[in-house]
Amino acid sequence: MATDDRKARAKAHLLEGKLDLAVEELQGALAELPEDTEDAELWLALGTAYLALGRTDDAVRALRAAVEANDGDVDARLALGRALARAGRPDDAAFQLLQASRLAPTDARVAAELGLVFYEKRLYEKAASWLTKAVDGDRTDGRAAYALGLAHEGRRDIGAAIGAYREALRREPEHVDARKTLADALASIGELEAALAELAEVSRREPTNERAAKNREVLVHALGEMRARRLLGKDERAVSLSALVQEGALSPKGRLVPTRPGTQVLRYAAPLAELWVTLGPDARVEELLLVLPDPARAADEDDDVFRVTVIAESGAPRTVDYATAVTLTFLREALGCPLTAASELYARLLATQAPVEWGGATAAFTSVPRPDRPSEQRHGVLVRQRTSH
């Protein structure tokens, strides 16, 4: 009876947030148990209270006792996994959580904790797999969706990360960290207008958030610079004065037959590269296509034209071949983005062979008929405004 009274008082203290008093009652209740008697529920409650108090080592010991008292208790293994993760023991945490997953394969809580542990271990593929299970298993958990976004960023899938952050905000609109991280992700792929909208929402919800206000100022400036630099939306003169044309010695070669009414297509050419420029009815650039007539030869040639350097995996700068240099220069000027962003976009294009988006525009590999021999195909990179038809 005394033990039952202590349990009741401990429960009341826990509900009131009086954790120290709850710990005293739980310790007393455990001490009053008959010899050789274990109470998994008491150990679980004590371990949970310890964890809330930040007494991590005590929490691990109590929760391990709960598991030993009832090794089929999913809640006990879940809590022990959390405590071990908090204690900086991710391998032990993963073991306990995997055991919990075997006991309850569809428990979204366990999947979420496993995802977080694997994320801390920088095993981003595993983290994304478990967090996807958590997100699918609990349609209300914004925390798991946010963590999934971080895991996708870790595995360098920025598109999936953005989708996960947006799902987190759909579930929990007040999740400011998810909104700020979404803004950073959008800015990283050049979606500056969308990033600004997210930061504006952060400032609306947190008017005193100075960092969000400062980031908005930076993005407004960057957006202005991007619009000023990019060839999309400019006129024929801007194209003719670009570094791509001037440094690449691309000479005007007249006009090609347009594929859309009301447009005109300008052609510039050098021995290893061609630039096709589609002007809309307002004589503004709608599309830019970089064509390499002989891709193999362009890849074999050293770049002594654009003098582009990139950072190798070792961290040292290195020069690139002509094909890479002209493509990076093309992406940089067409989109108005920094060379680092152009390099990232090109890497994504090569890795996925799928269109990528940056700053309201789309870049994609494409094939077009050769102007003088329509039966032959030429291959290149096409950049166009996302809204153009």
Q: How would you sum up this structure in a few lines?
A:
This protein is an alpha+beta fold. The protein has helices spanning 2-16, 19-31, 40-53, 56-69, 74-86, 90-103, 108-120, 124-137, 142-154, 158-171, 176-188, 192-205, 210-229, 236-240, 243-247, 295-300, 322-335, 339-352, and strands at 251-256, 264-269, 274-279, 285-291, 309-311, 317-319, 356-358, 361-369, 377-385. Helix content is 59%, strand content 13%.
Task: Describe, in plain words, how this protein is organized in 3D.
The chain has helices at residues 2-16, 19-31, 40-53, 56-69, 74-86, 90-103, 108-120, 124-137, 142-154, 158-171, 176-188, 192-205, 210-229, 236-240, 243-247, 295-300, 322-335, 339-352; strands spanning 251-256, 264-269, 274-279, 285-291, 309-311, 317-319, 356-358, 361-369, 377-385. With 389 residues, the chain is α+β, with helices and mostly antiparallel strands. It has a seven-stranded antiparallel β-sheet. The protein has a two-stranded antiparallel sheet with strand order 5-6. A hairpin with a 2-residue loop joins strand 7 (356-358) and strand 8. The longest helix has 20 residues, at 210-229. The mean pLDDT is 89.
